[in-house]
Write a structure and sequence with these properties.
196 residues; mainly alpha; Rna Polymerase Sigma Factor, Chain: A; Arc Repressor Mutant, subunit A
Length: 196
């Protein structure tokens, strides 16, 4: 069986028993979701890359130290490590809960899969995704976290509840309030979030 077809658990076991290629496959398999999660919180490309690297250094060390207990939630476990490193960073910087909208150069939402649209559609799409991104960052931290985990990392509400140490109902409630607040913000700012 090719390693690409193996589950996260099987790759973890192979890595623990000395197969270094397995950790590369795990990193590549989950790179996009983990990096996106980090970037959407820290809003700085270089800092996101540093935290991403630190996350996998800690993952490797934890795996080798036998600190990982598989429950079919490898991605959630890695996201929890990343989340803790983000919190540690902002505690050290004494900037917890303060982010700048101007600290990054690339547009995370500018995707190549939309390149066949005309330039006007691309400009409108970029503006909408930028508006949505900015609106998400105006949400309270607990609501923002649920939106990012659900819509950018693709976690289920069960996984979100485990990740954030709250009940599923609390996670669902936070999403509900996040959507209500986003609608209010769209109305207050008189934004149009549709492509004509």
């Amino acid at each position: 069986m090719k390693q690409h077809n193996l589950s996260d658990y099987e790759l973890v076991q192979r890595f623990i028993y000395g197969n270094k290629e397995s950790i590369e496959l795990l990193v590549n398999r989950h790179r996009k979701k983990i990096y996106t999660y980090i970037f959407l919180i820290v809003k700085d490309q270089h800092l996101a890359e540093d935290i991403f690297q630190d996350t996998f250094i800690k993952v490797i060390k934890s795996l080798l130290d036998g600190k990982y207990r598989d429950n079919g939630k490898f991605l959630s476990w890695v996201l929890r490590i990343a989340h803790n490193l983000i919190i540690d960073h902002f505690r050290k910087e004494k900037q917890l809960n303060t982010y700048s909208n101007d600290d990054y150069e690339s547009d995370l939402f500018n995707s190549r899969k939309f390149s066949d649209k005309n330039i006007e559609d691309e400009i409108i799409y970029d503006q909408i995704t930028n508006d949505v991104k900015n609106l998400i960052h105006e949400l309270p931290e607990d609501q923002k976290e649920v939106v990012i985990l659900r819509h950018y990392c693709g976690l289920s509400f069960k996984e979100i509840s485990e990740q954030t140490n709250v009940s599923i109902n609390t996670a669902l409630g936070r999403m509900r309030y996040a959507l209500i607040n986003l609608r209010k913000l769209v109305k207050e700012k008189n934004l149009s979030l549709t492509v004509v």
